[in-house]
């Protein structure tokens, strides 16, 4: 039907009682929005944005690197021995991680797609997979180099109350207990002795 009248479209879309076409259309639109798919595309949605293509290229290179180095370690693949993967794929993983961080910063400013929301689900899932492989499976996470300064500062802060109370104890005047004699009338026996002296 070549007519573009709204009645014609309405009769076609809502011809059945369940309105399957409308339900499917709403489902796909909601999924598209929830997955932030538009954030991976160019402004006119003609294809993937340049930054997304670069990220996916680095993602594929990282997975290829993991796979090639795992094949090289096939003879000695104990659960914690992935030194070749960590050593040979470090540069590729760092580049992928830097690209992801760049995309996040770019996306906060509006991004190539003109939308300011989360990154699209494909990019986030790809980075989650790579980080899980890198840190959990291959155990390639580098320990934080800032542990010594953090421990030093924490120790200093913990000892501050001790130093404070110790210095206040040493520099404050200690009040000595002085016994004050009571000013009471002496006993009757002493009064009798005084009267005898004067009489």
List the helices and strands and how they pair.
Blueprint: H1 6-13, H2 20-34, H3 50-72, H4 83-88, H5 90-108, H6 121-137, H7 147-171, H8 188-198
Helix pairs in contact: 3-5, 3-6, 5-6
Protein name: OSTM1 protein
Keywords: Membrane, Transmembrane, Transmembrane helix
Transmembrane segments: 148-170
Could you please describe the fold and organization of this structure?
Helices cover 62% and strands 0% of the residues. It has helices at residues 6-13, 20-34, 50-72, 83-88, 90-108, 121-137, 147-171, 188-198. The chain is mostly helical and 199 residues long. The chain has a domain at 41-137. α5 runs antiparallel to α6. The mean pLDDT is 79.
Structure keywords:
199 residues, mainly alpha, 8 helices
Structural class: mainly alpha
Give the rounded overall mean pLDDT. 79
Task: Give a quick account of the main beta sheet: strands, pairing sense, barrel closure.
Answer: none
Low-confidence sequence ranges:
none
Terminal-residue CA separation:
147 Å
Oligomer: single chain
- Based on Cα principal axes, name the global outline: elongated
Count of helical stretches: 8
The arrangement of helices and strands along the chain is HHHHHHHH
Radius of gyration from CA coordinates? 40 Å
Strand content: under 5%
Strand runs, count: 0
What percent of the residues sit in helical stretches (DSSP H or I)?
Answer: 55-70%
């Amino acid at each position: 039907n070549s007519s573009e009248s709204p009645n014609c479209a309405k009769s076609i879309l809502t011809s059945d009682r369940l309105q399957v076409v409308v339900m499917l259309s709403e489902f796909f639109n909601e999924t598209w929005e929830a997955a932030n798919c538009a954030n991976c595309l160019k402004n006119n949605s003609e294809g993937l944005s340049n930054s997304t293509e670069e990220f996916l290229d680095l993602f594929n290179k990282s997975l290829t690197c993991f796979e090639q180095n795992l094949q090289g370690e096939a003879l000695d693949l104990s659960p914690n021995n992935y030194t070749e993967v960590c050593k040979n794929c470090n540069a590729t993983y760092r580049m992928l991680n830097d690209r992801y961080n760049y995309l996040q910063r770019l996306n906060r400013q509006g991004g190539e797609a003109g939308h300011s929301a989360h990154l699209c689900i494909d990019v986030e899932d790809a980075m989650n997979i790579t980080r899980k492989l890198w840190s959990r499976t291959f155990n390639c996470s580098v320990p934080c180099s800032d542990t010594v300064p953090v421990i030093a500062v924490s120790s200093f802060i913990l000892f501050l109350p001790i130093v404070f109370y110790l210095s206040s104890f040493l520099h404050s005047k200690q009040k000595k207990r002085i016994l004050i004699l009571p000013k009471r009338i002496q006993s009757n026996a002493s009064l009798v002795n005084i009267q005898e002296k004067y009489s």
